[in-house]
Amino acid sequence: VEAGPFFASLGDQGDPRLITDLVKQDLERANPHDFAQKVLFNLPPPRIQAYLSNDYNQVKARVLDFATRLVARLGFQSVETKIMLLDELSTLRFLAMFLGLIVSLIVVCLSSLL
């Protein structure tokens, strides 16, 4: 979540019981980059379960489902979300498929020798 849009939307879309006029003024004057460049959220424990599937599309669906529910519950539809881990997994999925193919070919070749 980018800090600038996140702070800007806090005053308008935050919980009205917590966001008073004074808090809105402070949020408007505050430079979010003085506090943090990004706001990061983790999957709830056990996190590893969401990533154990060999199918990238299943992993992507689980992570996107969590991110969508998180953003909706926070009430910040106008923030930019970026899931960096999915970007990394996307590039590695082709390497994993290629290595799986190589291992399968080796097993077939060795089994044909017997």
How would you characterize the overall build of this protein?
There is one protein chain. Helix content is 64%, strand content 0%. By secondary structure, it is an all-alpha fold.
| Overall pLDDT | 77
Topology, number of strands:
0
In the predicted model, the low-confidence regions spanning at least 5 consecutive residues are: none
Number of helices: 5
Straight-line distance between termini: 56 Å
Q: What global shape is seen? A: elongated
Q: What portion of the residues fall into strands of 2 or more residues?
A: under 5%
The description of the largest β-sheet is: none
Q: Rounded to an integer, what's the Rg over CA atoms?
A: 22 Å
Give the helix level as a range of percent: 55-70%
Helix-strand pattern, N to C? HHHHH
Secondary structure category: mainly alpha
What distinguishing features does this structure have?
0% strand, mainly alpha, 5 helices, single chain, 114 residues
What would you say about this model in short?
The chain is mainly alpha-helical and 114 residues long. It has helices spanning 3-13, 21-29, 48-51, 56-74, 84-113.
Strand-helix topology:
Elements: H1 3-13, H2 21-29, H3 48-51, H4 56-74, H5 84-113
Helix pairs in contact: 1-2, 4-5
